Amino acid sequence: MNLELRKDNIRYLYYLLLLFMFFYGIQFTGMAFSTSKYCLVLISIEAFLIRQVYIRKDVIVQMFLVGMVVFYSYYISNVRGDGDMQVIELGTTLLLECYFIGSLLANILKYRGFTASKFMDLLTAVFALQGGLMLLMLISGSFRDFIFGATGNHGLNQFITTGHRGLAISWHKYYDFSSFQSIGAIIIALKYRYSHKLTKFDILKYVLIIFSVITSGRTGMIGVVLSFALFLWSFLYVRKKVLRYIVILIFVPYMAFESLSIVSPKVYNSLSAKLLPWAFEAYYNYVESGQISTESSDYLFENFYFDVYEQTLLFGDGRYRDGEEYYMDTDAGYMRHILFFGLLGSVILVFSYLRMAFIGIIRGNSKYSIIILICIGYNLLVHYKGDVLLNSLINMRLMVVLFLMFSYSSVFAFENDEKMVEI
User: Fold this and answer.
1) Between 393-406 and 175-195, two packed helices, what is the crossing angle to 10 degrees?
2) Taking CA atoms, which of 103, 146, 322, 343 is between 20 and 30 Å from 337?
3) At a CB cut-off of 8 Å and minimum separation 6, what does 213 contact?
4) Measured between alpha carbons, how far is 298 from 294 in angstroms, rounded to an integer?
5) pLDDT at 203
């Protein structure tokens, strides 16, 4: 029995680290590729060894839709654009890395006995591990120097400027990373909604995830607020141990923050002076002026969305970048897609994500299947700020993996060979 328990713990730790490296795509100094690429090899080998190399037919349809986007991107970039291959490369990555390898990963996790609840616990542990490492980087200068040195000082300039951003051990570090991490907070709130209890480990994970969100980008605050709303809804529904959990969820993070004044006064003063005014700028502006706004959101609305010619609106200009800058100096996701492949390419791409959400609703195999709709809807909202549908691998991987894990029903079950395509 002890041997089996040890095997289970080792297996859990392995998949925890595998998902961590897969999602965050860390680029270590001296490595030719990011950790995601090495994970692709490990996943492929394991799927082959346990004979789990197959793809569902509904995933083939998803890949066909993305393939249409890739084909049109190639066409428009060569006919009207400057031959920029970046969108083609991003679309191909979505096809191969997210859908194909993601399918193998889902097959493996199902085969290894990860139920919906177990997978949610594993996933939130991945988010919390990142938050814990970020907290350690903030507090320990030597650990921070080691990590920055090992990752080519990626994000160091932002940390020097702000005192809190750029800490994530990830290729993505800012607004899309923040929204990605906040999904973990939503998952923990959903777990309480359905199980009506939180373990001490859940509470610790929640606090670490909130920390990682607040210190990386304000976009993730939307997810944090949604998690609070889910908790409130659950408290009103369950009506037991409410005061206890309210105290835990509000005062534990507060006490943890205040304890920094003893553990590391320098860090505490820096966060009080820089992080809080920045993270809660929208709230402060609402109190002062009655308007919910931030400097960055105002700049986004005023400068990143503008009128274009009808032909550009419909078919795009086939240009994603202009040298080192984005084409026409816009960073907004929807605008960048309109400028590149117009409404034609944009509609196909958005439809592929909406189709995943639709399948997740009608063919979900778990009470947690709602997370597919939440995650995709959230990213469609965040796409207004930046390109997360094609240029944020961290969120693309998450959306597809959640779809693959939680949209299996009796119609698309593993054992139904008629609904599978074996490779």
Assistant:
1) 20
2) 103
3) 178, 181, 182, 185, 220, 221, 223, 224
4) 6
5) 87
| Residue 45 dihedral angles phi and psi, to the nearest 5° | -65, -45
Mean pLDDT of 187-193: 88
Work out the angle at residue 275's Cα, subtended by the Cα atoms of residues 251 and 290, and round it to the nearest 5 degrees. 85
Q: What is the pLDDT of residue 198?
A: 80
**Residue 334 reports pLDDT greater than 70:** yes
Better pLDDT: 355 or 262: 355
pLDDT at position 165, please? 80
Q: Spell out a b/e string for 80-111, using b for 16 or more CB atoms within 10 Å of the CB, else e.
A: bbeebeebbebbebbbebbbbbbbbbbbbbbe
For residue 416, name the pLDDT band (cuts at 50, 70, 90).
very low
366 vs 350: CA distance, rounded Å: 24
- Whole-angstrom Cα distance, residue 231 to residue 246? 9
Using CB atoms within 10 A of its CB, is residue 358 exposed (0-12), middle (13-18) or buried (19+)? middle
Residue 417 has pLDDT above 50, yes or no: no
Contact 392, 94 (CB under 8 A): no
